[in-house]
Amino acid sequence: MLYTLLLLYVTENWKSHSIPISTKIRPMKALVWPVATYGCESWTFRKNEETHLEAFQMKVLRKILQVSWTANKTNEWVLNKAGVKREQLNTVKARTLAYYVHTMRKQGSCREKEITQGTIPGAHRRGRPCTAWVDNIKT
């Protein structure tokens, strides 16, 4: 129920021509981004997921500015018009790094720290290893 009211409020405000763009950006940062990046500390990012996150950011900004994807406007034009930067991916990576530091700071041996360090005993599966969460921290 609350989500429906929130969505109705946000879309009605985004369609209004009397509200400045900077005012439309504030609810986006306060309401849309936290929902979109919930739990991002544990995400394993590949190039594909990074592209999807940036595409979502551009889709929301185009919706705020009421610019169709067929309007032949570049992403840089949309970012300049909205007065924002591509900061979402850097925010997600910073939160992931902060969570990693928090996990490594724990005293003693805990299951979470063992999993992150990869020190759990046992055999590995055959084939190419999956992308590990720690590999994203190193890059």
Main attributes?
single chain; 0% strand; mainly alpha
- What class, by secondary structure content? mainly alpha
User: What gap, in angstroms, lies between the N and C termini?
Assistant: 41 Å
Please state the overall shape, judged from the principal axes of the Cα atoms: elongated
Helix content: 55-70%
Poorly predicted runs are none
Structure, described:
This protein has 139 residues and is mostly helical. It contains seven helices and no strands. The longest helix is centred in the middle third of the chain and has 19 residues, at 47-65.
Task: Give the topology.
Elements: H1 2-15, H2 21-36, H3 47-65, H4 75-82, H5 88-104, H6 111-117, H7 133-138
Helix pairs in contact: 1-2, 2-3, 3-4
In short:
The protein has 139 residues and is an all-alpha fold. The chain has helices at residues 2-15, 21-36, 47-65, 75-82, 88-104, 111-117, 133-138.
